[in-house]
Amino acid sequence: MPDRLVRAAFPANFPVIGTVYGSVMKQTVKALYIGRGAVSVWFRYCLILFDLASIVFFVATANIPHGPGLIAVSWAVGLIILLDFAARMWIAKDRKKLLFKIYTLADLVVIASLILDPFLTGSLAFLRILRALRLIHSYHLLHDLRRDSEFFRTHEDAVIAAVNLLVFIFATSTAVLVFYIPQDSQTPYIDALYFTMATLTTTGFGDITLNSPGGKLFSVFIMVVGVALFVRLAQAIFMPQKVRHKCPNCGLFRHDPDAVHCKHCGETLRIKTGGVG
User: Which residue numbers delimit the Potassium channel domain (predicted)?
Assistant: First the structure.
C-alpha cells in the first residue's frame, strides 16, 4: 500500500485519538456504575430489574428440557451478565479484590452454567441450582439504597436480614426443585417452595417428604440454617433499630435513631432525621 494511503487511513494522531476515546468511554461507564447522578442511579436500578427478570427465567426453566429456543435465551442472558462483569472489571481500581467478591464469583458461576447449557445432562443439572446465586448480585444495590433512602438507613438491619432469608429460600427451593420434585408434578416450583417453607418453619405437614438419606440430610440443613436466618430477621424487626452514623471522635458507627451523644465517648452527634421542627 502506498505511504500516502497509509497516512490517510491512519493519521499521525491516531493513537492519541484512540487513547482519548477509550478514556472518555471508561469515564462514562464509571459514571454509570458509581456516579451519584439521576441517570447513574436509574441505570443501576435497571440492572437490578434485569437481575430479577433473569431469576424468574431461571426458576421457570430450572427443571424443563432446554431446546434451541431456551438455549438461545440463556446465551443472551449470559452475554448481558458477561458484559456487566467486563464493565465492572474494566473500571475497577483493584480488579483482584473485585474478582473475589461473592457477587462477582456468583456471576462467573452463572455465566459458566449458561454457556454449558447445551451440554447439561442429568449429572450436570446441579449447575442450574447455582443460578440462584444471581440473587446475591443484588447486594450491591444496598450502597445506593443506603445513600438514597431514609427508610433503608433506618431499617437497614431488618432489610438485610430479609434479603439473606430470601436468598436462602430461593437457593434451597431451586435445589429441591431440581433434585427431589417429580417431573410429573403439575406445580413443581410451588411444591419445592412449599416443602422448603414447611421445613424451615419446622411445621412439617408431611405431605411432601424427601425420603432418601441425602434428602433427609438436606432437610436438616434447611431447618438449621433457615431457622437461624428467620430468628435473625425477627430480632432485627423487634429489637431497637440502629442507624449508621460515624462518630467524629471515636468512630462508633451504629447509634440509636434519637441519640444526641455517642454512648461510647460522649461526643455530640448530629444524626439526620426525618422529623419536623
Answer: 166-236
**How is residue 100 written as a grid cell?**
473475589
Contact 255, 243 (CB under 8 A): yes
CA distance 173 to 52: 16
The pLDDT of residue 25 is: 84
Predicted confidence at residue 52, as pLDDT, reads: 77
C-alpha to C-alpha distance for 173 and 190, rounded to whole angstroms: 9
- Per DSSP, the residues of 226-268 read HHHHHHHHHHHHHSPP-EE---TTT---EE-TT-SB-TTT--B
Separation of alpha carbons 75 and 105, rounded Å: 18
**Cell of residue 115, nine digits:** 454457556
Q: What is the pLDDT of residue 162?
A: 84
The Cα 7–Cα 263 span in angstroms is 71
Which residue reads 485519538 in cell numbers? 17
CATH number corresponding to 149-241: 1.10.287.70
Report the alpha-carbon distance of residue 274 to residue 259 in Å, rounded. Answer: 14
Which amino acid, 64? I
3-state helix, strand and coil shares in percent for the chain, rounded to the nearest 5: 70, 0, 30
Count CB neighbours of 159 within 10 A. 19
Whole-angstrom Cα distance, residue 97 to residue 259?
Answer: 36
Q: How far is CA 78 from CA 66, 81, 91, in A?
A: 15, 5, 20
Residue ranges of the domains in the chain?
Answer: 1-148, 149-241
